[in-house]
Write a structure and sequence with these properties.
five-stranded antiparallel beta sheet; mainly beta; about 170 residues
């Protein structure tokens, strides 16, 4: 998921998205106004390279989600945590990212269904001190993937919430 153009599709209400270009994988968000605590909600080696994701508050009281790769990154912010809970999709020449969250406390995983009928999953990460009642996901997909739906599921696989992606 290297160099994903997060600025194009972070469709979360709020202050909009900010793109950055990096030479290495950052250890923390690039937003200058990010305040501690910063909570990691995802990361690893995606289909097109390493990535990291965080949620945090800013000095002007916004809630933000940020995803960074070795070559780019982007963030989106909103006035309250609900702005970050709906699903979003970001795509670029080098990968696709599906991100979002839920307030359902029994949720454990997310399943992303693609237009070709296949699906891939991801785990939910606790929002920690930034969003103690929310769980977040970031799923990195190969370039050209067309995610059409996410499902939030519990430990038994029961669908708790299903949302189409536009």
């Amino acid at each position: 998921m290297a160099a994903v153009a997060l600025v194009v599709a972070f469709a979360v209400a709020g202050c909009g998205a900010v793109a950055q270009v990096f030479q290495h994988l950052p250890d923390r968000p690039s937003t200058a106004t990010a305040l501690d605590p910063i909570v990691g909600i995802g990361g690893g080696n995606g289909p097109t390279g390493p990535y990291r994701a965080w949620i945090y508050r800013t000095s002007d009281s916004l809630f933000c989600i940020e995803v960074a790769t070795t070559r780019s990154g982007g963030s989106s912010c909103g006035g309250d945590i609900t702005a970050l809970l709906g699903p979003g999709v970001s795509s670029g020449d080098e990968g696709v990212v599906v991100y979002g969250g839920t307030g359902l406390s029994t949720a454990t995983n997310v399943i992303v269904t693609l237009a070709d009928g296949t699906s891939t999953g991801g785990t939910l990460a606790a929002g920690g001190a930034v969003a103690p009642t929310a769980l977040f996901y970031v799923v990195a997909l190969p370039t050209g993937s067309q995610p059409i739906r996410i499902a939030i599921v519990d430990a038994g696989g029961a669908v708790l919430e299903q949302v189409p992606l536009h």
